[in-house]
Design brief:
- This protein is of the alpha/beta class.
- It is built from eleven helices and eight strands.
- The chain has an eight-stranded parallel β-sheet, covered by helices on one side.
- Helix 3 runs parallel beside helix 4, helix 4 packs across helix 5 and helix 5 runs parallel beside helix 6.
Length: 305
């Protein structure tokens, strides 16, 4: 079972070095901590998809911020290995090198959670599970997590861990949202059985579930094109209307309702959400004190109220 306090939500670091430059990223990080935020999520591959970037930019910005603020003990950091072109896969040797690269960029000697960013069918599970265990024993990693693993692979990993007394998997990251609820079946049931908490990503679906994208409205955003097809589905427009109704009833923002709904789904510990500028954090923190009734949770999900 995890010993990590994720807070009401985890700050996604995918925007750092992408939609937020260094100065904007520092401002977001400062505001996040000032408001009581704890966990910052990143990965070695962030943000290699941006023209001119090569990967490692997010970790580097976070590391520069940690060094300038001298506040490593005040925050929690989680990062990942597998997808970075310079450090691909989950071989034991790659994991050992990748963590040292990440620690150097992050200006720290440990991370609180280290994830296998994806499963690696080309590497025996025994090999990479032992490698993660080695990092925990060395003090470079506090806890070990997985991201987007198939349930059967989590189950087999848990069996190997138990047989060899290795560090257990304590956290799973998966794409889970009101628009993508697949993990809520078999996978979430398995996570609960094994005592693994869920920290879902893409809960706001590229901003679509913030409520700022509406039929007929034009939004100046790098993500606008990716949500156009979502607006073409009447079911998604109806979902926005239900979110509006609950937000109005509680006098909060739509993102606050979405995060509160997500956090209420077992075994979710906290959702991941990003902010390009500090003012966007207000709606995210608004979710911290928002409790939704079972009837409201069902209504938002499109069930009975």
């Amino acid at each position: 079972m995890t010993q990590v306090d994720f807070g009401p939500f985890v700050l996604g670091g995918n925007t750092f070095g992408w939609t937020s430059d260094t100065e904007e990223s520092f401002a977001v990080l400062d505001a996040f901590v000032a408001a009581g935020g704890r966990m910052i999520d990143t990965a070695d591959v962030y943000s290699a998809w941006v023209p001119g970037n090569e990967g490692g930019e997010s970790e580097t910005i976070i590391g520069q911020w940690l060094a300038s603020r001298g506040n490593r003990d005040a925050v929690l950091i989680e990062t990942k290995v597998f997808q970075y072109a310079k450090r691909p896969g989950l071989s034991a040797q790659n994991i050992r090198v990748a963590i040292d690269d990440s620690l150097r960029r992050l200006n720290t000697d440990y991370v609180d959670v280290y994830y296998a960013h994806r499963d690696d069918p080309d590497v025996p599970q025994e090999e990479y599970l032992a490698a993660f265990d080695e990092l925990v024993r060395a003090g470079k990693v506090r806890e070990f997590g997985v991201s987007e693993f198939e349930p059967k692979r989590i189950e087999s990993a848990a069996a190997i861990i138990a047989e060899n007394s290795l560090t257990p998997i304590t956290v799973s990251q998966d794409h889970f949202s009101l628009l993508h609820r697949d993990p809520a079946g078999e996978k979430f049931a398995l996570l609960e059985k094994l005592g693994i908490v869920e920290v879902p990503f893409w809960v706001l679906e590229n901003g679509f579930l913030t409520g700022k994208y509406r039929p007929g409205a034009t939004v100046a955003s790098k993500r606008a094109e990716s949500v156009e097809q979502l607006l073409a589905d009447p079911a998604n427009v109806s979902l926005l209307a239900r979110l509006d109704a609950v937000a109005i009833e509680h006098r909060v923002s739509v993102p606050a309702v979405v995060l509160a709904w997500t956090r209420a789904q077992a075994p979710v510990a906290a959702p991941i959400a990003s902010a390009r500028i500090p003012s966007q954090l207000d709606a995210l923190f608004e979710s911290a004190d928002l409790g939704l009734t079972p009837e409201e949770l069902a209504f938002i999900a499109g069930e009975s109220r």
